[in-house]
Recover the amino acids of this structure.
């Protein structure tokens, strides 16, 4: 029994050393397979990359490419990066991010806080995109999960397939709002909930609203400004809240 306890303790210690977060030293790159990585507050590093681990960037830090495969990325306030990228994990960003490239994941949500600027696109496949007072130079996209834009500016298109897209609080979309037609059956049992698009009070879509899925419900505030609408008939509403 005592031998078994010692073996378990040894294995636990080894596992802990493998998975413990490693601090990336200033001016260096962080590269790992099975460790999470941390960039300390106020420090500048080069690339930060891991495979099976999360990445954390503390406030007022900076990095070049920030990439993982199986793990989340957590970014504090006033951080500067070239890009944020993961495959299986969410990306959560505080206020004041400056990103010169893309922010993207495949399986996970993306949340970016106030006063942030992304010079590329913000995209996920399976997850929700939430932008609060964010400027994105290119596109904001998801397939399954929907989008929530509050007082944000998108230079390109806003695109989704399934979910709810809300353009609220005076947000501006410089390109088109597009709901793509699903390929195959995305929902359980061969059915999926119809997409919903809301263009809220004071918001603007400078391009078209193009709906390829005719089951989509489109609500446009009577104080919003939009270009042409294709694919469905828009439902006008007044007040702060959409009917659905």
């Amino acid at each position: 029994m005592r031998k078994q306890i010692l073996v378990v303790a040894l294995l636990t210690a080894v596992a802990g050393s493998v998975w413990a977060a490693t601090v990336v030293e200033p001016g260096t790159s962080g590269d790992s397979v099975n460790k999470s990585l941390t960039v300390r507050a106020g420090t500048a590093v080069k690339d930060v990359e891991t495979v099976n681990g999360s990445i954390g960037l503390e406030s007022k830090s900076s990095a070049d490419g920030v990439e993982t495969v199986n793990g989340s990325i957590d970014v504090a306030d006033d951080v500067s990066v070239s890009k944020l990228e993961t495959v299986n994990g969410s990306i959560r960003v505080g206020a004041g991010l400056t990103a010169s490239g893309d922010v993207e994941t495949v399986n996970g949500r993306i949340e970016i806080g106030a006063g942030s600027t992304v010079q590329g696109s913000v995209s996920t496949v399976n997850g929700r995109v939430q932008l609060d007072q964010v400027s994105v130079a290119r596109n904001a996209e998801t397939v399954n999960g929907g989008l929530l834009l509050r007082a944000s500016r998108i230079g390109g298109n806003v695109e989704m397939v399934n979910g709810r897209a809300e353009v609220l609080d005076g947000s501006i979309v410089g390109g088109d709002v597009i709901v793509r037609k699903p390929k195959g059956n995305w929902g359980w049992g061969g059915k999926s909930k119809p997409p919903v698009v809301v263009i809220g009070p004071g918001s603007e879509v400078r391009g078209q609203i193009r709906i390829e899925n005719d089951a989509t419900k489109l609500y446009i505030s009577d104080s919003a400004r939009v270009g042409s609408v294709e694919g469905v008939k828009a439902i006008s509403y007044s007040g702060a809240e959409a009917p659905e």
